[in-house]
Amino acid sequence: MNRYKDKKIVAVGGGHGLGRMLAALKGFGSNATGIVTTTDNGGSTGRIRHCQGGIAWGDTRNCINQLITESSLESIMFEYRFKGEGELDGHNLGNLMLTALDNLSVRPMEAIQLIRNMLKVEVNIIPMSEHPSDLKALTEDGSWVHGESSVDQMEEDLLQLDLQPKVPATHEAIVAINEADCIILGPGSFLTSIMPPLLLPEIGQAICNNKNAKLIFIENLSPEYGPAGRMSIEQKLEWCEKACGGRVIDVLIGDTLHANLSPKWPFFKADLASENSEWRHDRTKLMKAIIAQLDIDPEQI
Length: 301
Known about the structure:
The protein has a domain at 9-41 and 124-296: 3-Layer(aba) Sandwich (Rossmann fold). The protein has a seven-stranded parallel β-sheet, with helices on both faces. Strands 5-4-6 form a three-stranded antiparallel β-sheet. A two-stranded antiparallel ribbon has the order 11-12. It has helices at residues 15-24, 43-52, 58-67, 73-79, 93-104, 108-119, 148-152, 171-179, 190-198, 201-209, 226-229, 233-243, 283-291; strands spanning 9-13, 32-36, 124-127, 134-139, 144-146, 158-164, 182-185, 214-218, 251-254, 267-269, 273-274, 277-281. It starts with 8 loop residues before the first strand and ends in a 10-residue tail after the last helix. The chain is globular. The model has no long low-confidence stretch (mean pLDDT 92). It is of the alpha/beta class and 301 residues long.
């Protein structure tokens, strides 16, 4: 029986951050949904996109990896990364499996459903869009930088983020946001994991329209590099709110107090770090921090 059957939670982001968040929400089962960034153009994912086209699968694979509950031959295969020389070196078999299933399916969502069923993953995984798109950033000198990897490495500060080409949001993502009791942004790379889904107008508008959901922003435990590392927490919250039609973030969760933070944003201080790594969020601590924001009996944890 689902212990949290009365609450639906949506987490938005990508990379390791969203995977960690969804692993923390595993107890919500199918009432938890991850809306995953699909703009990555680096590593194995970037090489596959260059050869095959399609959306970026790396962040989706990472989320599924962190949600696997039973070790099996299928899970070992999904997590396997090739080593050695030649074209396969560095490729993750899970990325190749998702690409192959995508090619065999009518739409990417079907490929994800097949993998979730195979690996017994209960939490819903939804790509932000089922159409390929890339991140681009406008620098202060008026030039555009293209590609998620390039944006992360920018030495200049940026004025604006956008997607190229413009693509529609996945229908299931909008439905999940509309039905959510809680919407979580982060943790993760701000410009390249959290922001891309919010750049889709339908997603930003859906978050704006759902006034009943608690909108939570979760800070990273260590500073970012590149342009995101030069942004203040206030700037990040303002960027999110602008993308979400002015919808004010209800609570900021982090482990460090901000002396000059506007009272507009209530702050919830929590020790979230894993015992093994100061920069990695602990799944149980994350879960308890989220539970504290919802009307859930702690005895159900």
